[in-house]
Write a structure and sequence with these properties.
The chain has about 325 residues and is an alpha+beta fold. The strands form three sheets. Strands 4-7-2-1-9-12 form a six-stranded mixed β-sheet, with no helix packed on it. A four-stranded antiparallel β-sheet has the order 8-13-10-11, with no helix packed on it. It has a three-stranded antiparallel β-sheet with strand order 3-6-5, with no helix packed on it. A hairpin with a 2-residue loop joins β5 and β6. α1 packs across α7 and α6 crosses α7. The radius of gyration is 25 Å and the shape is elongated.
Amino acid sequence: MGERVSQLAEELGELLKGRGVNADRVGSRLGPQLSAVVFADADPESSRSAIVVHRWMRACAAELPPDLAEIFLGATGVTDPQPFLTGRITRLALERGVSERTIQRRVRQACALVADRLDRLSPVPPDENPFAVRGWFVERLLSIARLDEDRPRFIGVRDIRVTLAGVDAICETLSIVSPHRLLADDELAVTATEGGEVTELSRISPSTWRLKLELGRELSVGDIHRVGVSVTVPSREFIKPYNAFVPVRRTRRFTAEVHVGDRPVIARAWRYDGVPPPAMEDGVALAPTLDPTDGVLRASWPSVRRGLAYGIGWAWSTD
Protein backbone atom coordinates (compact mmCIF):
# COMPACT_ATOMS: atom_id res chain seq x y z
CA MET A 1 0.00 0.00 0.00
CA GLY A 2 1.49 3.32 -1.11
CA GLU A 3 1.88 6.33 1.16
CA ARG A 4 -1.05 8.22 -0.38
CA VAL A 5 -3.32 5.16 -0.21
CA SER A 6 -2.36 4.63 3.44
CA GLN A 7 -3.18 8.23 4.27
CA LEU A 8 -6.51 8.01 2.44
CA ALA A 9 -7.40 4.85 4.38
CA GLU A 10 -6.49 6.55 7.66
CA GLU A 11 -8.59 9.61 6.80
CA LEU A 12 -11.54 7.40 5.88
CA GLY A 13 -11.24 5.77 9.29
CA GLU A 14 -11.36 9.19 10.95
CA LEU A 15 -14.40 10.13 8.88
CA LEU A 16 -16.35 7.17 10.28
CA LYS A 17 -16.26 8.52 13.82
CA GLY A 18 -19.34 10.12 15.34
CA ARG A 19 -22.07 10.68 12.76
CA GLY A 20 -19.77 9.82 9.86
CA VAL A 21 -20.88 11.42 6.60
CA ASN A 22 -23.93 12.86 8.38
CA ALA A 23 -21.88 15.10 10.65
CA ASP A 24 -22.40 18.84 10.56
CA ARG A 25 -19.96 20.55 8.17
CA VAL A 26 -18.78 17.15 6.99
CA GLY A 27 -16.68 18.78 4.27
CA SER A 28 -14.41 20.39 6.85
CA ARG A 29 -13.91 17.01 8.60
CA LEU A 30 -12.21 15.43 5.62
CA GLY A 31 -8.45 15.01 5.86
CA PRO A 32 -6.18 16.78 3.35
CA GLN A 33 -5.86 13.86 0.91
CA LEU A 34 -9.55 12.98 1.01
CA SER A 35 -10.53 16.62 0.66
CA ALA A 36 -8.26 16.95 -2.38
CA VAL A 37 -9.98 14.01 -4.06
CA VAL A 38 -13.56 14.97 -3.22
CA PHE A 39 -13.45 18.75 -3.55
CA ALA A 40 -10.24 19.72 -5.37
CA ASP A 41 -10.39 23.55 -5.20
CA ALA A 42 -14.14 23.71 -4.65
CA ASP A 43 -15.60 24.86 -1.36
CA PRO A 44 -15.82 22.10 1.30
CA GLU A 45 -18.17 24.33 3.29
CA SER A 46 -20.76 24.68 0.55
CA SER A 47 -24.36 23.68 1.13
CA ARG A 48 -23.86 20.72 -1.22
CA SER A 49 -20.77 19.29 0.47
CA ALA A 50 -22.71 16.55 2.28
CA ILE A 51 -24.33 15.46 -1.00
CA VAL A 52 -20.94 15.37 -2.71
CA VAL A 53 -19.38 13.28 0.08
CA HIS A 54 -22.34 10.83 0.03
CA ARG A 55 -22.00 10.40 -3.73
CA TRP A 56 -18.28 9.69 -3.51
CA MET A 57 -18.83 7.08 -0.80
CA ARG A 58 -21.56 5.33 -2.82
CA ALA A 59 -19.48 5.41 -5.98
CA CYS A 60 -16.51 3.81 -4.25
CA ALA A 61 -18.68 1.24 -2.44
CA ALA A 62 -20.02 0.13 -5.81
CA GLU A 63 -16.56 -1.29 -6.58
CA LEU A 64 -16.42 -3.37 -3.39
CA PRO A 65 -17.59 -6.98 -2.95
CA PRO A 66 -21.28 -6.83 -1.98
CA ASP A 67 -20.72 -7.85 1.66
CA LEU A 68 -18.02 -5.22 2.21
CA ALA A 69 -20.05 -2.58 0.36
CA GLU A 70 -22.96 -3.00 2.78
CA ILE A 71 -20.66 -2.83 5.78
CA PHE A 72 -18.82 0.22 4.43
CA LEU A 73 -22.02 2.16 3.67
CA GLY A 74 -23.44 1.31 7.07
CA ALA A 75 -20.28 2.24 8.97
CA THR A 76 -19.88 5.57 7.17
CA GLY A 77 -23.49 6.49 7.93
CA VAL A 78 -24.65 6.53 4.32
CA THR A 79 -27.29 3.87 5.02
CA ASP A 80 -27.44 4.10 8.83
CA PRO A 81 -27.98 7.55 10.39
CA GLN A 82 -27.22 6.49 13.97
CA PRO A 83 -25.20 9.24 15.69
CA PHE A 84 -22.36 7.02 16.92
CA LEU A 85 -20.03 4.65 15.12
CA THR A 86 -20.31 2.09 17.95
CA GLY A 87 -24.06 1.91 17.36
CA ARG A 88 -23.61 1.34 13.65
CA ILE A 89 -20.98 -1.33 14.26
CA THR A 90 -23.27 -3.10 16.76
CA ARG A 91 -26.17 -3.11 14.30
CA LEU A 92 -23.99 -4.48 11.50
CA ALA A 93 -22.74 -7.26 13.78
CA LEU A 94 -26.23 -8.23 14.96
CA GLU A 95 -27.61 -8.28 11.41
CA ARG A 96 -24.82 -10.63 10.29
CA GLY A 97 -24.51 -12.77 13.39
CA VAL A 98 -20.82 -12.02 13.84
CA SER A 99 -18.77 -10.26 16.48
CA GLU A 100 -18.22 -6.51 16.51
CA ARG A 101 -14.49 -7.18 16.21
CA THR A 102 -15.15 -8.99 12.93
CA ILE A 103 -17.14 -6.02 11.63
CA GLN A 104 -14.36 -3.63 12.63
CA ARG A 105 -11.84 -5.75 10.74
CA ARG A 106 -14.05 -5.77 7.64
CA VAL A 107 -14.53 -2.00 7.90
CA ARG A 108 -10.73 -1.59 7.83
CA GLN A 109 -10.56 -3.88 4.80
CA ALA A 110 -13.25 -1.85 3.04
CA CYS A 111 -11.48 1.43 3.85
CA ALA A 112 -8.24 0.09 2.38
CA LEU A 113 -9.99 -0.97 -0.83
CA VAL A 114 -11.85 2.34 -1.10
CA ALA A 115 -8.61 4.25 -0.52
CA ASP A 116 -7.01 2.36 -3.37
CA ARG A 117 -10.02 3.13 -5.56
CA LEU A 118 -9.86 6.84 -4.68
CA ASP A 119 -6.16 6.91 -5.46
CA ARG A 120 -6.74 5.39 -8.89
CA LEU A 121 -9.65 7.73 -9.63
CA SER A 122 -7.65 10.84 -8.79
CA PRO A 123 -4.00 10.62 -9.81
CA VAL A 124 -2.01 13.66 -8.67
CA PRO A 125 0.68 14.36 -11.26
CA PRO A 126 3.60 16.57 -10.23
CA ASP A 127 2.75 20.21 -10.93
CA GLU A 128 5.41 22.79 -10.21
CA ASN A 129 3.53 25.63 -11.90
CA PRO A 130 3.44 28.35 -9.20
CA PHE A 131 0.48 30.08 -10.88
CA ALA A 132 -1.87 27.13 -10.38
CA VAL A 133 -0.91 25.61 -7.03
CA ARG A 134 -3.81 23.69 -5.55
CA GLY A 135 -5.14 24.21 -2.06
CA TRP A 136 -7.05 27.48 -1.98
CA PHE A 137 -9.43 29.76 -3.83
CA VAL A 138 -10.46 33.39 -3.49
CA GLU A 139 -13.58 34.02 -1.48
CA ARG A 140 -13.45 37.79 -2.09
CA LEU A 141 -11.07 40.18 -3.82
CA LEU A 142 -10.99 43.95 -3.36
CA SER A 143 -8.78 45.89 -5.78
CA ILE A 144 -8.19 49.56 -4.97
CA ALA A 145 -6.51 52.09 -7.25
CA ARG A 146 -5.34 55.19 -5.38
CA LEU A 147 -5.05 57.96 -7.96
CA ASP A 148 -5.52 60.61 -5.26
CA GLU A 149 -1.98 60.18 -3.92
CA ASP A 150 1.27 61.67 -5.18
CA ARG A 151 2.27 58.30 -6.67
CA PRO A 152 -0.35 55.89 -8.04
CA ARG A 153 -0.85 52.94 -5.71
CA PHE A 154 -2.78 49.71 -6.20
CA ILE A 155 -3.91 47.64 -3.22
CA GLY A 156 -5.25 44.11 -3.50
CA VAL A 157 -6.98 42.50 -0.54
CA ARG A 158 -7.90 38.81 -0.84
CA ASP A 159 -9.90 36.59 1.47
CA ILE A 160 -8.63 33.12 0.56
CA ARG A 161 -10.37 29.92 1.61
CA VAL A 162 -8.20 26.86 2.16
CA THR A 163 -9.18 23.53 0.58
CA LEU A 164 -6.05 21.53 1.44
CA ALA A 165 -4.38 21.51 4.85
CA GLY A 166 -0.85 22.85 5.14
CA VAL A 167 -1.03 25.98 2.96
CA ASP A 168 1.57 28.38 4.38
CA ALA A 169 2.39 30.55 1.35
CA ILE A 170 0.76 31.74 -1.85
CA CYS A 171 2.12 33.01 -5.15
CA GLU A 172 0.50 35.81 -7.12
CA THR A 173 1.32 37.86 -10.19
CA LEU A 174 1.09 41.56 -10.88
CA SER A 175 1.19 43.18 -14.29
CA ILE A 176 2.13 46.77 -15.06
CA VAL A 177 1.93 47.41 -18.78
CA SER A 178 3.36 50.89 -19.28
CA PRO A 179 2.30 52.63 -22.49
CA HIS A 180 5.53 54.66 -22.47
CA ARG A 181 8.59 52.81 -21.14
CA LEU A 182 9.47 49.76 -19.08
CA LEU A 183 9.41 50.13 -15.34
CA ALA A 184 12.77 49.56 -13.69
CA ASP A 185 12.83 47.12 -10.79
CA ASP A 186 13.86 49.80 -8.31
CA GLU A 187 10.92 52.00 -9.38
CA LEU A 188 8.41 49.44 -8.13
CA ALA A 189 7.49 49.33 -4.43
CA VAL A 190 5.69 46.16 -3.26
CA THR A 191 4.74 45.59 0.37
CA ALA A 192 2.36 43.35 2.27
CA THR A 193 -0.35 45.31 4.07
CA GLU A 194 -1.78 42.39 6.07
CA GLY A 195 -1.82 38.63 6.45
CA GLY A 196 1.73 37.81 5.44
CA GLU A 197 5.13 38.93 4.24
CA VAL A 198 6.47 39.34 0.70
CA THR A 199 9.52 37.07 0.61
CA GLU A 200 10.12 36.87 -3.14
CA LEU A 201 9.57 39.27 -6.04
CA SER A 202 10.83 38.21 -9.44
CA ARG A 203 10.30 39.64 -12.89
CA ILE A 204 9.10 36.96 -15.27
CA SER A 205 8.49 39.23 -18.30
CA PRO A 206 8.96 42.92 -19.12
CA SER A 207 5.53 43.76 -17.63
CA THR A 208 4.88 40.96 -15.14
CA TRP A 209 6.22 40.05 -11.72
CA ARG A 210 5.65 37.03 -9.52
CA LEU A 211 5.54 37.49 -5.79
CA LYS A 212 5.51 35.00 -2.97
CA LEU A 213 3.67 35.71 0.27
CA GLU A 214 4.61 33.76 3.38
CA LEU A 215 1.51 33.56 5.57
CA GLY A 216 3.29 33.00 8.87
CA ARG A 217 1.51 29.75 9.74
CA GLU A 218 0.05 26.63 8.18
CA LEU A 219 -3.65 26.96 7.42
CA SER A 220 -6.26 24.26 7.88
CA VAL A 221 -9.05 23.14 5.57
CA GLY A 222 -11.90 25.65 5.71
CA ASP A 223 -9.78 28.50 7.08
CA ILE A 224 -10.36 31.96 5.62
CA HIS A 225 -7.21 34.10 5.63
CA ARG A 226 -6.95 37.72 4.50
CA VAL A 227 -3.87 38.90 2.66
CA GLY A 228 -3.18 42.37 1.32
CA VAL A 229 -0.50 43.70 -1.03
CA SER A 230 0.30 47.30 -1.97
CA VAL A 231 2.02 48.19 -5.26
CA THR A 232 3.29 51.74 -5.89
CA VAL A 233 4.62 53.13 -9.19
CA PRO A 234 6.38 56.47 -9.83
CA SER A 235 3.68 58.21 -11.88
CA ARG A 236 0.60 57.61 -14.00
CA GLU A 237 2.72 57.25 -17.14
CA PHE A 238 3.46 53.72 -15.93
CA ILE A 239 -0.15 52.56 -15.75
CA LYS A 240 -2.88 51.93 -18.24
CA PRO A 241 -6.27 53.53 -17.59
CA TYR A 242 -8.01 50.66 -15.85
CA ASN A 243 -8.16 48.85 -12.55
CA ALA A 244 -9.11 45.38 -13.70
CA PHE A 245 -8.89 41.72 -12.80
CA VAL A 246 -8.73 38.60 -14.98
CA PRO A 247 -9.27 35.56 -12.73
CA VAL A 248 -7.23 32.45 -13.41
CA ARG A 249 -8.17 30.84 -10.08
CA ARG A 250 -11.67 30.30 -8.73
CA THR A 251 -12.91 33.62 -7.34
CA ARG A 252 -16.32 34.13 -5.81
CA ARG A 253 -16.69 37.90 -5.54
CA PHE A 254 -14.80 40.93 -6.82
CA THR A 255 -14.96 44.63 -6.03
CA ALA A 256 -12.98 47.38 -7.75
CA GLU A 257 -12.46 50.91 -6.47
CA VAL A 258 -10.73 53.93 -7.99
CA HIS A 259 -10.02 56.76 -5.56
CA VAL A 260 -9.76 60.13 -7.27
CA GLY A 261 -10.50 62.45 -4.35
CA ASP A 262 -11.02 66.02 -5.45
CA ARG A 263 -8.39 65.82 -8.15
CA PRO A 264 -9.69 66.20 -11.73
CA VAL A 265 -7.60 63.27 -12.98
CA ILE A 266 -10.39 61.38 -14.75
CA ALA A 267 -12.72 62.73 -17.42
CA ARG A 268 -15.09 59.74 -17.42
CA ALA A 269 -15.16 56.12 -16.25
CA TRP A 270 -17.01 52.88 -16.98
CA ARG A 271 -17.28 49.21 -15.97
CA TYR A 272 -15.81 46.15 -17.63
CA ASP A 273 -18.39 43.43 -17.00
CA GLY A 274 -16.61 40.24 -18.04
CA VAL A 275 -15.06 41.17 -21.39
CA PRO A 276 -12.19 39.58 -23.33
CA PRO A 277 -9.04 41.16 -21.86
CA PRO A 278 -7.85 42.68 -25.19
CA ALA A 279 -11.05 44.77 -25.27
CA MET A 280 -9.71 46.90 -22.43
CA GLU A 281 -6.84 48.05 -24.62
CA ASP A 282 -9.27 49.92 -26.87
CA GLY A 283 -9.94 52.45 -24.11
CA VAL A 284 -13.63 52.83 -24.93
CA ALA A 285 -16.68 52.49 -22.72
CA LEU A 286 -18.34 49.08 -23.01
CA ALA A 287 -20.92 49.73 -20.31
CA PRO A 288 -22.72 52.75 -18.82
CA THR A 289 -20.42 55.33 -17.27
CA LEU A 290 -19.68 55.50 -13.55
CA ASP A 291 -19.79 58.56 -11.36
CA PRO A 292 -17.72 58.93 -8.20
CA THR A 293 -19.30 59.01 -4.75
CA ASP A 294 -17.26 61.00 -2.24
CA GLY A 295 -14.30 60.85 -4.59
CA VAL A 296 -14.49 57.06 -5.13
CA LEU A 297 -15.56 55.07 -8.18
CA ARG A 298 -16.83 51.66 -7.14
CA ALA A 299 -18.17 48.55 -8.88
CA SER A 300 -18.86 45.02 -7.63
CA TRP A 301 -19.46 41.62 -9.19
CA PRO A 302 -21.08 38.82 -7.13
CA SER A 303 -19.54 36.24 -9.45
CA VAL A 304 -16.79 36.26 -12.06
CA ARG A 305 -15.70 33.85 -14.77
CA ARG A 306 -12.15 32.75 -15.33
CA GLY A 307 -10.38 34.28 -18.30
CA LEU A 308 -12.62 37.35 -18.61
CA ALA A 309 -11.83 40.89 -17.46
CA TYR A 310 -13.74 42.76 -14.76
CA GLY A 311 -13.03 46.20 -13.42
CA ILE A 312 -13.19 49.93 -13.99
CA GLY A 313 -11.76 51.74 -16.99
CA TRP A 314 -11.36 55.46 -17.46
CA ALA A 315 -10.21 58.26 -19.73
CA TRP A 316 -7.61 60.62 -18.32
CA SER A 317 -8.57 64.25 -17.96
CA THR A 318 -6.69 66.68 -20.16
CA ASP A 319 -7.08 69.53 -17.66
